[in-house]
Design brief:
The complex is a heterodimer of chains A (323) and B (420). Chain A is 68% helix and 1% strand. By secondary structure, chain A is mainly α. Chain A has a single domain, classed as MetI-like fold (Orthogonal Bundle), CATH 1.10.3720.10. Chain A has a two-stranded antiparallel sheet with strand order 1-2. With 420 residues, chain B is α/β, with parallel strands linked by helices. Chain B folds into 2 domains: 4-149 and 302-375, Periplasmic binding protein-like II (D-Maltodextrin-Binding Protein, domain 2, 3-Layer(aba) Sandwich), CATH 3.40.190; 151-299 and 379-419, D-Maltodextrin-Binding Protein, domain 2. Chain B is built from 18 helices and 13 strands. Chain B has helices at residues 19-22, 55-65, 80-87, 105-109, 117-120, 129-135, 157-163, 171-181, 197-207, 225-240, 256-259, 273-280, 316-329, 331-339, 349-352, 361-373, 383-399, 403-419; strands at 32-33, 42-48, 70-76, 96-100, 136-137, 140-141, 144-155, 187-190, 263-269, 285-287, 300-309, 345-346, 374-375. In chain B, strands 1, 2, 3, 4, 7, 8, 9, 10, 11, 12 and 13 form an 11-stranded mixed beta sheet that branches. Chain B has a two-stranded antiparallel ribbon with strand order 5-6. In chain B, helix 9 packs across helix 17 (383-399). Chain B is globular. The chains are: A mainly alpha (323), B alpha/beta (420). Chains A and B meet through helix 6 and helix 13 of A and helix 1, helix 3, helix 4, helix 17 and helix 18 of B.
């Protein structure tokens, strides 16, 4: 295939540009691009890419209290983790968490976006109000959830309300029962719904008004408009939102750690992968980077597999629609 | 408020202090202040953030009083041991630093800390033997003890008297006493919002007459029927739900539940003693965890920060000199450090007599209990092992799993951990 030639360089009166100016590009475009991209790329390389590679290397060594290990152990660290019942159950914990939080956040944020979109007035106000929790730190919210709402003491907020109805206080976070999931899921739901609502609103704004008008002329109204126009048109946004939700759920750490963890310990229930890895590789006063790195590699691999599967599903359903 | 001291006694694998709670301790963050000395080496010294008012000023005072070198103190809020471990991997290490229960096995094996045996040898008899034993590894002493912290069982003698009971001497008595002291608005015993699992877990080993590891440190030293019996007894009591306060206004490390009369007895730090005395006056007493099972013994859980010198430091010899000066020679400072900002026990038992808070009452009782019945985790008891152990205890107590089954996996974990 012949290389396309820049029409300007074919001007007969001008000689071809020198190597330098070709490198710089038209209006020094390439130079500018490099100038803008390089600092970010350097940051990424130093803080993301190099640590990832380093982590992969460390995972093959016994690396206690060192980042330049010498004792090569092959895949022993991986074997140790995969044989560890606690690690496998931490993946189970994540799956339970994801099963709750992903659909719930999806439905709530989409619902809010649709409601707001249909509002004739005060849209900006409600948009900000619902988005506001996203600015709150997980740690702060976890403290409020833990000590105010879901305190297991008699005088905890929800327990006080329950006792008004004559019910016994519930030991929310202690692990005797499964009520701790309510605290974990509502916390994340409150914090992240607003953010995904904004993503959906952006998606809604991209649907051309003419599509709705055409559908309205065909007699579609209300729910049918939502079902046959809005939701299919939001497909790309929905795919992105689901992906982000799953990855974020996988990386859950802050709310678990601050809601359930205590000084010097973390209970044996509700331990997602990152909390588990944190405990065994950095717990107490140790620094076991080999096992920790192996764990992060496994978690990364699972996230990548999730991503690929989802991508494949989306492409397939997209292809079906086109055919 | 006394926050970060609690992390010191961590037995399970978790982090020393959770970020959110930690936010309320201390005042200034991470600033360094220099001391002006004539000449000699310039050294840096690291501390974790002590929660009590005045500790930071005191340690800066000690550093600037040192005549032979300039010592710069760095005060480290946050998860100190993680910060320290990471910093020790870099080229810029603190010359002198404190470490929870002395230098860790990993620090010693990685060659990060100086051997301080020669330094302490002439004075070793002055220090509490239990602490020296804990700080000894591979026949050498790697850290100089600073102060001792401990956890004790607080109770109100008047409540016992009203109920016609005396202080419990066995676990069984403790549990029945707790049940007897329970009212509609007050629980019997509180040891944390996890049902006391974390704080009780190590005590199940020690108070039932066991040690964590066998003599050669190759496997666990407590998995027998008497130990299972003790854990089961506590598990049944947990299930009965009567005298155990499972959730309170604060964690075990704060005395707030005991002060607010949410519970009649609480297992918490000796460091809370001043607040407790302020709230309940003379009606406060402390005791060790009573003996458990047939061959048990009283047990009290202690921890001690030790001062270490970094091998990669600018001038290790000068750092060792400073450590000797401060933590061996300067007894006035040692007493002030232990006694003036909370209740801690000097690492040298002879100095306890000079500490006002330990002279009489509950403080004196606690100092004596630590000397006679003090236990702390073995140096080879790693975070991973601690986590796995506490998990197993939690399975038995909270989930009602059979102890033999719950501790099966632990024995395996221990083998791999101890072999590496």
């Amino acid at each position: 295939m012949p290389t396309p030639v820049d029409p300007e360089s074919r001007s007969p009166t001008r000689p071809g540009p020198g190597f330098r100016s070709r490198l710089a590009g038209r209006h020094n475009q390439n130079l500018w691009q490099a100038a803008f991209v390089t600092p970010f790329f350097c940051g990424l390389a130093v803080f993301v890419y190099i640590p990832i590679v380093w982590s992969a290397v460390l995972s093959l060594f016994e690396a206690r209290n060192t980042i330049t290990p010498t004792k090569f152990v092959g895949f022993a660290n991986y074997g140790r983790l995969l044989n560890d019942e606690a690690f496998r159950s931490s993946v189970g914990t994540f799956i339970v968490f994801a099963l709750f939080i992903v659909p719930l956040t999806f439905v709530c944020s989409l619902g809010l976006a649709l409601l707001l979109n249909g509002m004739p007035r005060f849209q900006a106000f409600f948009r900000s109000a619902f988005f506001l929790p996203a600015a709150c730190s997980y740690v702060v919210a976890a403290m409020v959830w833990r000590f105010t709402f879901f305190s297991g003491a008699r005088f905890g907020m929800i327990n006080s309300v329950l006792s008004g109805f004559g019910s016994q206080p519930v030991h929310w976070l202690g692990g005797e029962n499964s009520w701790y999931w309510v605290a974990l899921v509502t916390l994340r739901l409150w914090l992240q719904t607003g953010f995904y609502m904004i993503l959906f609103i952006a998606g809604l704004n991209r649907i051309p008004a003419s599509t709705y008008e055409a559908a309205a002329l065909d007699g579609a109204t209300g729910w049918r408009l939502t079902r046959y126009i809005t939701i299919p048109q939001l497909k790309a946004t929905s795919a992105a939102v689901t992906m982000l939700l799953v990855i974020n759920a996988f990386q859950a750490f802050d709310e678990f750690y601050n809601l359930l963890g205590s000084i010097g310990s973390y209970p044996s229930h509700a331990r997602p992968p990152l909390v588990f890895l944190y405990l065994i590789s950095l717990g107490g006063s140790q620094l076991d980077l080999g096992v920790g790195s192996a764990g992060t590699m496994i978690v990364t691999a699972i996230i990548v597999v999730f991503g690929l599967v989802q991508n494949w599903v989306n492409h397939r359903s997209g292809a079906e629609e086109r055919s | 408020m006394n926050i970060s001291r609690r992390g010191l006694l961590s037995f399970a694998g978790g982090a020393a202090a959770i970020a959110g709670l930690n936010a309320c301790g201390g005042n200034s963050g991470g600033l360094t202040s220099g001391s002006s000395a004539s000449n000699g080496a310039a050294l840096t010294q690291w501390y974790h953030e002590y929660g009590e008012q005045g500790v930071e000023a005191a340690v800066r005072k000690y550093a600037s009083a040192y005549p032979n070198a300039t010592v710069e103190v760095k005060w480290n809020p946050g998860e100190y041991m993680k910060l320290l471990n990471s910093q020790l991997l870099t080229g810029d290490v603190p010359d002198i630093f404190e470490s929870e229960n002395g230098a860790t096995v990993d620090m010693i094996n990685a060659g990060q800390v100086e051997d301080l045996t020669e330094l302490i040898k002439p004075y070793v008899d002055q220090f509490a033997p239990s602490v020296i034993e804990r700080f000894t590894f591979k026949d050498a002493i790697w850290s100089i003890p600073q102060t001792i912290d401990c956890r004790v069982l607080y109770y109100r003698p008047s409540l016992l008297a009203t109920a016609g009971l005396s202080a419990p001497t066995t676990l069984t008595e403790l549990l029945t006493t707790a049940d007897a002291l329970t009212t509609d608005t007050r629980g019997g015993f509180f040891g944390g919002n996890d049902g006391g699992v974390t704080v009780m877990a190590p005590l199940f080993i020690w108070a039932s007459g066991h040690k964590e590891l066998n003599g050669e440190r190759t496997e666990l030293g407590f998995l027998d029927d008497s130990f299972y019996g003790v854990v089961s007894e506590y598990a049944e009591w947990y299930k009965s739900g009567k005298g155990l306060l499972k959730a309170a206004s604060a964690e075990w490390s704060s005395a707030a539940p005991f002060i607010n009369e949410e519970c009649a007895m609480q297992w918490t730090g000796l460091w809370n003693l001043p607040e407790v005395l302020a709230a309940h006056g003379d009606d406060v007493a402390v005791m060790a965890m009573p003996a458990m099972g047939s061959s048990g013994t009283q047990a009290i859980h202690f921890g001690a920060y030790g001062s270490c010198a970094a091998v990669k430091g600018k001038d290790p010899a000068a750092a060792k000199e400073f450590i000797k000066w401060l933590w061996i020679d300067q007894e006035d400072y040692q007493v002030e450090f232990a006694d003036s900002f909370g209740t801690h026990i000097p690492a040298k038992p002879a100095l306890a007599a000079k500490a006002t808070k330990l002279a009489s009452g509950p403080g004196a009782t606690a100092a004596q209990l630590v000397a006679e019945h003090g236990f702390t985790a073995d140096i080879m008891w790693s975070g991973a092992l601690g986590t796995a152990y506490t998990d197993a205890v939690s399975e038995v107590v909270v989930k009602g799993v059979d102890p033999k089954q719950a501790f099966q996996a632990l024995a395996e974990t221990a083998k791999t951990e101890l072999a590496s």
